[in-house]
Amino acid sequence: MGEASEATASPFVLPSGDHVLKKTPLNATHRAANARMVDFGGWDMPVHYGSQIEEHHAVRRDAGMFDVSHMRVLDLHGQGARDFLRHALANNVDKLKTPGKALYSCLLNPEGGVIDDLIVYFLREDWFRVVVNAATADKDIAWLRDLLREAAAGLELRVRDDLAMIAVQGPSARAKVWQVLPQARSATEPLKPFNAAIVDDLFIARTGYTGEDGFEIMVPAERAPALWQALERAGVRPCGLGARDTLRLEAGMNLYGQDMDDAVSPLESGLAWTVDLESARDFVGKSALGASAPQRQQVGLVLEDTRGVLRAHQVVHTAQGDGEITSGTFSPTLGRSIALARVPRGVEPGERVEVAVRDKRLAARVVKPPFVRNGKVLVEGHAKAAT
Amino acid sequence: MNIPADLRYTASHEWVRNEDDGTVTIGITDHAQSALGDLVYVELPDVGRKLAAGEACAVVESVKAASDVYAPIAGEVVAVNEDLSARPEAVNEDAYAAWLFRLRPDGADRASLLDAKAYEMTIGET
Question: Quick check: A170 and A67 in contact, CB under 8 A?
């Protein structure tokens, strides 16, 4: 058995040399639970604790939790923090008016490519919190520090390695968190999606990467194992990065390095909604984005055939020309394979395309992501309309 | 790790069982199914296909990745496990019961196959 010739490098099996993998504060907890561990962007992370599919269903139907402590929390302190982020980010931080409000944004390079995607929280005019991806964190920090030097703004960027982060997701997630952290209920029950509250030394945000309700909880690293164990006792199922990937793909959410990267415009990666081209504000990458009209677009695909699984880098043949899958998997909720793909503009939802899967061309249907949100399949009605 | 002593193995994680009628049955090991995770698709060779030793002849796909399965020895495919098209997860449940295909070997040469102990050494503990 070996990696199939057309199988793509899975994001969970990055080439590993002799380098020492980084460990989150929950590493021993995962190992004690017999998790299957993999090298994920230089971190020793759990891919599953037995069955990725069962973990996936637990999040859609009840509650699951993920160790996302490998993501990096950065605090930007100082007067003028908002002005700096107005220039650094493609989305407009002026949308953040109340403390605790979060915004999803791309960090662009001057050529208009995506350095990373992130969430920025407004806490005070002199304090914004940014959460970036694990594998890109060092690159992001170096880039932001360069921008800070240019701006000479006297701002400070603090890397919060002292925090761990646990994402608790699913229809029962919030209730189970309140069971474990009753003191957090009054501050977090009124939170609308994409808002956060600080409760003592916890930072609790109603955000996630699964398409389900829930919280992402930042906790001092030394207290993370106890919180994890308490959540597990409350019936929250430990879930690995494998389920996290199938959940986010069903939710139509991009993964950095697959569905977007520094060489492709966010406008060709399904991220136009996060790029503020309306306001007069200038930001890094803006002029490059305006210079040429996008030729490609992101769409969703549902495989109609059962003889294979859609995977990144497979070629998509459409009436408008060829495209490429950027992320593909088997969707446990739909029971068939789904993908995000970058295809020529003009390809419309409902169209049928063919995907090259090994030696076959398999039929797939173009849909508008997301595939699943809040436990509901959103593309089947479309399936009926199309047939 | 479950590595039955009565089977033979390859370093690429196939198991091989000698049948009384001279054919050999082939599957993937427990270690392999565990590394792949939940299987969602199995593609098997056509019956009658002649395989060279080491030839890629089947594909197992999990949620995570697709992997080729190689013919451990040369031979002709005489049967495939059709049940797996409807229930690929049977391989996760019992990798040694859920066989993939059966070969009539071209010759008697099994020298390249590993016994349980030698296979265990190749997978080691990571």
Answer: no
- pLDDT tens track for B18-77: 999 999 999 999 999 998 999 999 999 999 999 999 999 999 999 988 999 999 999 999
The pLDDT value given to residue A33: 97
CB pairs under 8 A between A and B: 77
Please state the rounded mean pLDDT for residues A351-355: 98
Nearest chain A CA: its distance from B92 CA (Å): 10
In the predicted model, is pLDDT for residue A5 greater than 70?
no
Domain around B57: 8-109
Distance from CA of A255 to the nearest CA of B (A): 15
Among B32, B35, B63, select the one facing A52 at the smallest CB separation: B63
Residue ranges in chain A assigned as alpha helix (H) = 27-32, 52-61, 81-88, 137-151, 173-180, 185-188, 224-233, 241-250, 286-291, 380-386
ipTM of the complex, rounded to two decimals: 0.84
pLDDT one-digit tens code per residue, A22-77: 999 999 999 999 999 999 989 999 999 999 999 999 999 999 999 999 999 999 99
Contact B38 A358 (CB under 8 A): no
Assess if residue B123 is contained within a domain: no
For residue B126, the model assigns a pLDDT of: 41
- In terms of phi and psi (left: phi > 0; alpha: psi -120 to 50; beta: otherwise), the region of A264 is beta
Domain count across chain B: 1
List of chain B residues whose C-beta atoms are within 8 Å of the C-beta of residue A1: 12-14, 28, 32, 60, 67-70
CATH class of A295-386: mainly beta
CB B51 within 8 A of CB B57: yes
Least CB–CB distance from A4: residue in B12, B38, B68: B68
d(CA B104, CA A229): 53
- Band of pLDDT at residue A17, cut at 50, 70 and 90: low
